[in-house]
Structure formats: C-alpha cells, structure tokens
Design a protein that fits this description.
With 520 residues, the chain is mainly alpha-helical. The protein has helices spanning 3-22, 24-42, 56-60, 69-95, 150-158, 164-168, 180-204, 207-226, 234-242, 244-284, 290-323, 328-333, 338-357, 363-390, 396-421, 427-479, 482-495, 505-514; strands at residues 44-45, 50-51, 101-104, 118-121, 133-135, 172-175, 227-229. The strands form three sheets. Strands 5-6-7 form a three-stranded parallel sheet. Helix 10 (244-284) packs antiparallel against helix 11 (290-323).
Length: 520
C-alpha cells in the first residue's frame, strides 16, 4: 500500500470512528431498551441490584403435572405474559425518553396482589395513580385447538362473580392482543341482544327482570371500557413459557433492528455529506466527471448504510447485555461507546484481514494496521462520551469526540510503533525527515492556496445554486418526491455544463421501456 492509499485508509478509519461516535446516543438508548428483556429473562437487574420474583427462565422451570399439562402450561404462560408485557412497555419508555416504568406488583413486594398485576411508577419510584392493571389470559380450551372460541369464553369468565372485584376497583384489564378485537365485538353483540330484551321486559312491565338485564348490560359495558390490548399475544405467551431464551432473543432483535435503521440513517448523513463535498471539489478541479461523482456518492452512501446498520444492530444488543452483566466493570464499560465501537472494529478488522489473505498487504503491515485500528477505535469510544458531554447535541458531540479520539490515539500509536522499530534516529536521518516534513508543509500550503482559488473561481459564484439544490435534495428525500430530487441534482450538473440524462421519473421509465440508450 503506497502512502496515498495509506492516507486515504486513515481518513476512512477516522470517519468510521466518527460515525461510531455519532451512534453513541442511539446505541445507549436502544441498548438500555434491550436490557429490559435481558432482565425479564434472567429475573435479575444487576445494574440496580434487584432480583425479580420471577423471570422468564424461572417460569419455564416450573413443575408441570402430566395429567394437567394443558392447564399448567397456560397458567404459567400468564406469568410469562406479565413479564414480557412489563419488559416491552419499559423498553418503549426508554426509547421515547419516558422516565416512568411499569412494574409487576409481585416485584414491589405485594406478591399475589388481589386487585392489580402491574402498576406504573414515576422516576422517584412512586406509584402513579390510576395505572393499576390486571392481566387476564383466559379462554383457552384443550377441546378448541383452533382457538375459535377463546374470546367468547374469556368474556364469559370476566362476567362471573370471581372477577367482580376488578370492576369494583375500576382496574384496567389487559388481554391477549389477538383476542382483544374479538372480545370487543363479542361484548357489543351481547349488549345489543340484552338491550332488545330489556326493552321488551320494560314494555311488558317486568320491572324486576328489567333491573337484572340492566345490571348485566352495565357490567358488560364496564368490562368493555376497561379492556385493554396487551402487547403480548396468547401465542407469544405460550412461546415465552416454552422457549424463554428464543423469545427474549426475538424481542432483543426487534429493538436492535430499530437501532440499526437509525444508525444507518446517521451514517449515511455523515458519510454522504463528506462524499458530496469531496466529489464536488474533484469535479471543480477537473479530476472527476459529474456523472462519476454522483455514482461515487451513491456507492459511498450504500456501503455506509450497511456498515451503519450493523453497528447499530450489534451495538444495541451488546450494550444491553453488558448493562445487565454481573460484572461491575463490564456494566461501567456499557456507559461508554465500546459496544458500537467493537462492532466497527470487527468490520474494519475483517476488511484488513481480507486484504492480507488476498496478498494485498504483508503480515507486518496487517498487524500494524490492526493495532492502529484497534487502539484508535477503542480510544474513540471513550472520547465519544467526552464529546457528548462537552457538546450535548445528539450525533454532533459523539461524532467529534470519536474523530478526535481516533486521531489522537492513531497518532500516538504511530509514534510508539516507530520508536519501537528503532531506538533512535541517526543525525542524518533526522535531517532527512525534517526536510521531508518541510516539503509536506509546503504542499499543504500550496493545496490550501489551490482550494482558495477554486472556491473563488467556481464555488462562490455557484453557492446559491448549491444551497438551493441541496435544500431541494434534502426536502425531496424527506417527503419522498423523486421528481424533485432529480430536478435538484440536475441543477448542479447543468451548472457545470453537463446535460441531464433524464428530467423526471416518468422520463426515466419511458427511456427504460423504449430501450433508449443513455448514460447514468
């Protein structure tokens, strides 16, 4: 690898570190959300030193009587549903910045609370009034494997005397997500039928019978009003009871996917912006054609999106696991950006090893590169936290901190490795190095002067066009207006004397259908 390629790779590594730093806030937030599911599985919140009465793992280990397997499994699945509902609710609160948390009354010390299964507490741990809820996964029957009558049976049970205490306390009743709509429909049908009977009894003068019918209608209406759709379906509750590890992994993966999408967007924004500027300068200097520059930007953003998604997905999962680790040291590390950075390191290291295996670099250069990337990236993880504290703006602080950390660590690493190679430089070598440095300084000054000339000759006159076009591109992407995007990009090309290949999506489709030849 020549010096130009090395410099290009170093710039890319610094930018990768910046992107990893910019993902700090996202990985922290989604990682903490994922932690809720790790706690739900293990039954232990190691971060605050609290053990839950039951986790999914403990529920799955409960005894099942072979003679009553169906009943036992469904009863235990009800506990699994409570645990998953709490974890999902709290994960959502974390992601959206809500400091309140849902908690099972069992875990508040009120085991087998007669009225509520869950309540919501505020940031100070105080119970929020009116948030008490009862979770009821009822209606399953071994004789009805298709579950066609689950909703009707569940509604019938809720009308029995056994459940009147919940209505008296006006408790919300969380039911399986797959049963909720059917239960509402069933309640409406029953209320309508009872209302017709009520009118008939009133007309016939049967006051006592009419009173009983009205009480049944009132009870159904209150049940209907208090029913609430759980985030957990009856199928998911059973699955969590039978396969707690896999059930947890699925929920963590869903959260990690959301983190991956968000970090991909951040990465594209950062790398895309840098790529646009670099390619515009290359076009202005005559080093690249506008069409090639557009393709370069597209390529940069596409590859960055994939890497960004991986950083967010794996980073959030890893952060969640680290945050609930039994090790205090690992929990402390989870507050840095080490989770996202380790993912980036793995991606970068894979590329370096691939180049070594292809024979593009030798073993020494491979090890040196891996060492620089590793120390640089880990340093960027620490500095991203400092950057976020110094500049408490999502993305910006972490981005700058990550870049600074990588640059400083890489520079230090370079000095140390060079000093290890040779104890000292000969006087003549020092003179040569100083001469080379002087030449580099001279080149930097010349490059700066050239850039200023380009700006004066090209960019200042076109600044309004650039500004207007970039605003159009941004707004078009925001609302998904393809024609506006094409028009805005064509404006830049036309400003440099290039003819647009097509003017709209319709024009593009027409040329594709007719087989017209055009160059992208």
């Amino acid at each position: 690898m020549n010096e130009k390629e090395k410099q290009k790779q170093k710039e890319k590594n610094i930018l990768d570190a910046g992107i990893a730093g910019a993902s700090y806030e996202t990985i922290q937030r989604y990682g903490e959300a994922a932690k809720q599911h790790f706690v739900a599985y293990s039954g232990e919140d190691n971060e605050i030193g609290k053990a839950l009465v039951k986790g999914l793992k403990q529920v799955a280990e409960e005894t099942v009587n072979p003679d009553y397997k169906f009943q036992n499994i469904h009863q235990q699945a009800g506990f699994s549903a409570e645990i998953k509902e709490v974890a999902r609710s709290n994960a959502g609160h974390v992601i959206y910045g809500d400091s309140s948390r849902k908690i099972r009354t069992d875990d508040l010390g009120s085991v087998n609370d007669p009225i509520y299964d869950t309540v919501t507490v505020d940031a100070n741990g105080e119970i929020v009034g009116g948030t008490g809820a009862q979770m009821k996964f009822l209606g399953a029957s071994e004789k009805d494997p298709a579950k066609a009558g689950d909703a009707a049976r569940a509604l019938e049970k809720l009308q029995s005397k056994k459940f009147e205490k919940y209505l008296e306390h006006d408790a919300k009743i969380d039911v399986p997500s797959d049963q909720y709509d059917k239960m509402i429909q069933e309640a409406d049908v029953k209320i309508e039928g009872l209302s017709r009977q009520l009118e008939k009894q009133k007309n016939d003068g049967n006051i006592e019978q009419a009173k009983k019918l009205q009480e049944r209608i009132d009870k159904l209406e209150k049940i209907r009003k208090n029913l609430r759709k759980s985030s957990v379906s009856s199928e998911e509750a059973i699955f969590a009871r039978m396969h707690p590890e896999l059930s947890t992994a699925i929920d963590v993966a869903k959260i990690s996917h959301r983190a991956g999408v968000q970090t991909a967007e951040t990465a594209v924004m950062i790398r895309g912006s840098v790529s646009i500027v670099k390619n515009l300068v290359a076009v202005c200097k005559g080093e690249a054609e506008p069409d090639d520059a557009v393709m370069n930007v597209a390529k940069d953003t596409a590859t960055t999106a994939i890497a960004g998604y991986g950083t967010g997905f794996v980073g959030a999962s890893l952060k969640g696991a680290m945050q609930n680790s039994k090790s205090q040291y690992i929990r402390a590390l989870s507050k840095t950006n080490i989770a996202g950075t380790l993912t980036t390191v793995a991606i970068v290291a894979t590329k370096t090893l691939t180049r070594y295996l292809k024979g593009e670099i030798d073993g020494v250069e491979c090890l040196e590169t891996l060492g620089e990337q590793g120390t640089g990236m880990v340093s960027s993880a620490m500095f991203s936290v400092v950057g976020q504290m110094a500049i408490p703006i999502p993305v910006v602080g972490g981005l700058i901190g990550g870049m600074v950390g990588y640059a400083l660590s890489s520079a230090t690493y370079g000095i140390l490795t060079n000093s290890l190679k040779e104890e000292k430089f000969a006087h003549e070598q020092r003179i040569q190095i100083e001469a080379v440095c002087e030449e580099h300084i001279k080149m930097i000054r010349e490059y700066r002067a050239e850039m200023e000339r380009i700006i004066q000759e090209y960019l200042i006159e076109s600044m309004d066009i650039f500004r207007e076009s970039f605003t159009g591109i941004k707004n078009a992407l925001a609302i998904g207006d393809v024609d506006w995007f094409i028009e805005s990009t064509n404006t830049i090309s036309e400003n440099f004397g290039r003819k647009a290949s097509f003017s709209s999506m319709e024009d593009f489709n027409t040329k594709m259908i007719t087989g017209s030849t055009f160059k992208l």
